[in-house]
């Protein structure tokens, strides 16, 4: 089994906060229980790797077809923050907008944080645009891991 992040070597690294960002296609909405199950699974994996910092999970819906109220009622009432990417534009524009959001959130996170991106898209995280964003995040001392939620660790 591979590690999510390198072995922490200092107390400060052990206490890194982790944001789990689940990139969701509207046709594949996970249930609330699945959100919290993934949160617990990743929290446990991080504990086994020596990380003790807070773990937060948020959803990012790439192409929402359902009304905003649905997401607020279905997830917000259960403590899950969901961000909706407007459906204007083609897939490339929506993907670029999501990458901009990643950079924005990175600047809002404490430095020396971890970011876990969950996506059912097998090819997510492969490509020069994402590589550039990952490099920028790593320059900000944010370590990045990309996982498929359907594959067990």
Helix content: 25-40%
Strand content: 15-25%
CATH fold name: Rossmann fold
CATH class: Alpha Beta
Radius of gyration: 15 Å
Domains (count): 1
Q: What is the name of the CATH architecture? A: 3-Layer(aba) Sandwich
Arithmetic mean pLDDT: 85
Number of strands: 5
State the low-pLDDT regions, or none: none
Task: Note the overall shape.
Answer: globular
Strand order, largest beta sheet: 3-2-1-4-5
Organism: Arabidopsis lyrata subsp. lyrata (Lyre-leaved rock-cress)
Protein name: NYN domain-containing protein
Explain how this protein is built:
The chain has 153 residues and is α/β, with parallel strands linked by helices. The chain has a single domain (11-147), classed as 3-Layer(aba) Sandwich (Rossmann fold). Helices cover 38% and strands 20% of the residues. A 5-stranded parallel β-sheet has the order 3-2-1-4-5. Helix 4 (91-108) runs parallel beside helix 5 (128-139). The radius of gyration is 15 Å and the shape is globular.
Summarize the helices and strands and which ones pair or pack.
Elements: H1 11-14, E1 18-24, H2 32-48, E2 55-61, H3 68-74, E3 81-84, H4 91-108, E4 113-119, H5 128-139, E5 142-147
Q: How would you summarize this macromolecular structure in one to three sentences?
A:
This is NYN domain-containing protein. The protein has 153 residues and is of the alpha/beta class.
Q: Characteristics of this structure?
A:
153 residues; 5 helices; alpha/beta; Rossmann fold; 5-stranded parallel beta sheet
